[in-house]
């Protein structure tokens, strides 16, 4: 285990909601600061805790994922870790050189060329002149902007600016790296390149990663802090649980009807789940749908399409149900759909329902998030589908 | 051994400790300040045809107005010891330096608020940055003064050797006041609006455009206004006269020293709070 590089003990920070009052408190704090008096620790009028009593430590080689909804206090915490603002309570201890990928390209002047701005930005984030000169070639090569490096940054696209900014920051050899949602702008090739660089840095670095992209969090983090209104809601090394809790914050049971031409109605439906809305992995999923047909336009038995989404809202699987042989007799149809050996991994899944005309394929009814169910499994995986593998492991002689 | 930083809510550091860390801040951030000054100066002139002339135009116009007023006889002014255009041009040029120095800390902090709230660097760099830019503008203005002096064939005397030290002391005086005002001035826009107005008003209570009157109410005001002595003596060193108020300069030296230390202290303590309030 590496040494502890980041340590937060009881860290809290308060902010004022009202600008005028915030400025006034700033003035009071400054006066107290100059006089050597300490700040008041209680909440003053209009103040609230943006971050409340956070405790964690990150060792070299570890990555802590900081997740939570907008305004949960992630950025405030990151600013404190970066030393921009000081905590109102508690202590943060940071060991070693700090690199922050919070604002890429800070200090750029858009009138100047990319090459000139490399010097500006690098100086701002703490490079010495010698370091910049030594790394200039690597920076330009990493950014892949050789062709445009002598063009004013004004004419760069936002993706190009981020490329250049990251290329500069990536040359820092930090002991501690703070990353805020900055990599979202680049194209896929660049994002992959960034992750490769982060993977390279990780063994020597204690990393804090703020993101709303759970696949990215799952990919690099080994510890999670889930924040809600400034407080820790989950903290630990169990990544799937942390991410699951994050998703539960946004899970809604409400379905949304995207299209309905009025000729068909879902009268009832059932899923073969237990009282906790849960199914065991490997069991069959049985969906029973009862329809009433309300229009004579529907002559043939409509086709039904079920699409499964995981908690990331990624569509992961689908099933088509259609049969020409059945005739419509009394305008009430029951579909009993069995899906064999559900291979989904632990987590929440939702089903989108599409009912369509058998021949023309025109939609009759479309409902997103029609229903949802939980899959229970002994193993926790990030990916939505857990494959059953047959294997042998044996010794052999070379 | 890794450098360890501890962030907490304690103000138990001694004044000496804060001053030392401020000095360290100035030292370690000097390259950054130079780089940013280069950036600002380059960028300022790259998108401009007249370039560095813009540093002179406001001063020039102001002086021109007064030269015309005096020529036309619209205002009656006591005769100046040197040709009036020289008197008024040097006066307004030096006065403009005062104003720039005073406004510099607030202007620079405001111009860089984007990096202040995002990047952790020694904020002292901003004061150095502003100072370098002031010196650059000063060079341009000196060029104008030298030009005017040679056109009117005015030869400085040995007192010219005091020009640089006295001017630097004056600049430091105004930068220190500006830095002391900066924390409030960044939080509330009122201060930065007030500075140009106050400087305009103060200009008329100093011998910038006209000489110290022999008697009367205005003389009283000018005599009480310490800024008068700055302008009189700095102008004297340029135009071949002697420095008249050595006691004043001794006092100014002591006061500036104290204010500079105070400014370093206040700036160091208040910048984290500014960062907090500007990003909250």
Automatic annotation (TrEMBL), chain A:
Query: Which GO cellular component term is one of those annotated?
Result: membrane
| UniProt keywords, alphabetically | ATP-binding, Nucleotide-binding, Transport
Q: Where is the signal peptide?
A: none
Using the record's annotation, list all stretches that form the ABC transporter domain: 34-254
SUPFAM superfamilies of this UniProt entry? P-loop containing nucleoside triphosphate hydrolases
- Keyword hit for Transport: yes
Q: Does the UniProt entry include the keyword Methyltransferase? A: no
**Molecular function as annotated in GO:** ABC-type transporter activity; ATP binding; ATP hydrolysis activity
Q: Which SMART domains match?
A: AAA
Cross-referenced InterPro entries: AAA+_ATPase, ABC_transporter-like_ATP-bd, ABC_transporter-like_CS, ABC_transpr_TagH-like, Bact_Polysacc_Export_ATP-bd, P-loop_NTPase
**Which PANTHER family would you find in this protein's record?**
TEICHOIC ACIDS EXPORT ATP-BINDING PROTEIN TAGH (PTHR46743:SF2)
What family classification does the UniProt entry report for this protein? Belongs to the ABC transporter superfamily.
- The protein, known as: Lipopolysaccharide transport system ATP-binding protein
| Source taxonomy | Bacteria, Pseudomonadati, Bacteroidota, Flavobacteriia, Flavobacteriales
TrEMBL record, chain B:
Q: Which GO terms describe its molecular function?
A: ABC-type transporter activity
Keyword Lipid metabolism found: no
Report the membrane topology from the UniProt record.
Answer: Multi-pass membrane protein
Which UniProt keywords are present, listed alphabetically? Cell membrane, Membrane, Transmembrane, Transmembrane helix, Transport
Domain ABC-2 type transporter transmembrane intervals? 34-235
Compartment(s) of residence: Cell inner membrane
Cellular component aspect of the GO annotation: plasma membrane
Which residue ranges traverse the bilayer? Answer: 48-69, 89-113, 134-154, 160-182, 194-212, 246-267
> Its principal location?
membrane
An example GO biological process term is: lipopolysaccharide transport
Q: Which InterPro entries match?
A: ABC2_TM
**PANTHER family in the record:** INNER MEMBRANE TRANSPORT PERMEASE (PTHR30413), TRANSPORT PERMEASE PROTEIN (PTHR30413:SF8)
Q: Which family does it belong to?
A: Belongs to the ABC-2 integral membrane protein family.
- According to UniProt, the name of this protein is Lipopolysaccharide transport system permease protein
């Amino acid at each position: 285990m590496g040494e502890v590089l980041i340590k937060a003990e009881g860290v809290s920070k308060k902010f004022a909601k009202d600008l005028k009052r915030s400025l006034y408190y700033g003035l009071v704090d400054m006066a107290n600061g100059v006089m050597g008096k300490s700040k008041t620790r209680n909440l003053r009028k209009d103040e609230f805790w943006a971050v409340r009593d956070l405790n964690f430590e990150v060792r070299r080689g570890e990555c802590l994922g900081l997740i939570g909804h907008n305004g949960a206090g992630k950025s405030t915490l990151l600013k404190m870790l970066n030393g921009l603002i000081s905590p109102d309570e508690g202590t943060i201890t940071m060991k070693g050189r700090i690199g922050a990928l919070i604002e890429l390209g800070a200090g750029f002047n858009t009138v100047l060329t990319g090459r000139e701005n490399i010097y500006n930005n690098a100086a701002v984030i703490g490079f010495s002149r010698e370091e910049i000169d030594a790394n200039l070639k690597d920076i330009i090569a990493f950014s892949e902007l050789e062709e445009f490096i002598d063009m004013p940054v004004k004419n760069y696209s936002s993706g190009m600016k981020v490329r250049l900014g990251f290329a500069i920051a990536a040359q820092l050899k930090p002991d501690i790296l703070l990353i805020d949602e900055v990599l979202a702008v680049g194209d896929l090739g660049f994002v992959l390149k960034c992750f490769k660089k982060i993977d390279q840095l990780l063994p020597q670095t204690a990393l804090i990663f703020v993101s709303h992209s759970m696949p990215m969090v799952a990919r690099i983090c080994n510890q999670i802090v889930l924040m809600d209104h400034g407080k820790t809601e989950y903290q630990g090394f169990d990544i799937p649980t942390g991410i699951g809790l994050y998703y539960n914050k946004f899970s809604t049971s409400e379905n949304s009807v995207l299209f309905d031409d009025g000729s068909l109605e879902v009268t009832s439906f059932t899923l073969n789940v237990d009282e906790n809305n849960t199914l065991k992995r490997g069991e069959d999923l049985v969906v029973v749908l009862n329809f009433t047909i309300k229009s004579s336009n529907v002559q043939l038995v409509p086709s039904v399409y079920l699409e499964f989404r995981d908690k990331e809202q990624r569509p992961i699987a689908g099933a088509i149900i259609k049969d020409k042989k059945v005739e419509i007799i009394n305008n009430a149809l029951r579909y009993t759909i069995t899906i064999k050996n559900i291979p989904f991994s632990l987590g929440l899944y939702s089903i989108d329902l599409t009912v369509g005309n058998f021949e023309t394929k025109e939609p009759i009814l479309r409902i997103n998030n029609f229903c949802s169910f939980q899959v229970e499994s002994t193993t926790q995986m990030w990916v939505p589908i857990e494959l059953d593998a047959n294997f042998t492991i044996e010794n052999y002689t070379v | 051994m890794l450098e360890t930083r501890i962030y907490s809510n304690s103000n138990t550091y001694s004044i000496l400790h804060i001053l030392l860390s401020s000095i360290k801040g100035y030292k370690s951030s000097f390259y950054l300040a130079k780089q940013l000054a280069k950036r600002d100066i380059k960028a300022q002139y790259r998108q401009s045809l007249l370039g560095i002339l813009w540093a002179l135009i406001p001063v020039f116009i102001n002086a021109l107005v007064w030269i015309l007023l005096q020529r036309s006889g619209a205002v009656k002014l006591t005769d100046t010891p040197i040709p009036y255009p020289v008197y008024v041009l040097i006066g307004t040029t030096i006065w403009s330096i005062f104003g720039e120095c005073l406004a510099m800390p607030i202007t620079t902090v405001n111009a860089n608020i984007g990096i202040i709230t995002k990047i952790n660097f020694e904020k002292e760099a901003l004061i150095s940055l502003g100072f370098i830019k002031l010196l650059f503008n000063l060079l341009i203005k000196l060029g104008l003064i030298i030009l005017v002096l040679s056109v009117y064939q005015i030869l400085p005397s040995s007192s010219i050797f005091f020009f640089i030290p006295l001017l630097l002391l004056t600049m430091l005086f105004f930068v220190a006041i500006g830095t002391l005002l900066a924390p409030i001035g960044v939080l509330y826009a009122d201060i930065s609006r007030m500075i140009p107005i106050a400087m305009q008003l103060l200009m008329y209570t100093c011998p910038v455009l006209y000489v110290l009157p022999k008697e009367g109410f205005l003389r009283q005001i000018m005599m009480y206004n310490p800024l008068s002595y700055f302008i009189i003596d700095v102008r004297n060193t340029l135009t071949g006269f002697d420095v008249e108020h050595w006691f004043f300069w001794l006092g100014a030296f002591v006061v500036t020293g104290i204010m500079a230390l105070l400014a370093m202290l206040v700036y160091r303590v208040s910048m984290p709070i500014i960062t907090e309030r500007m990003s909250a």
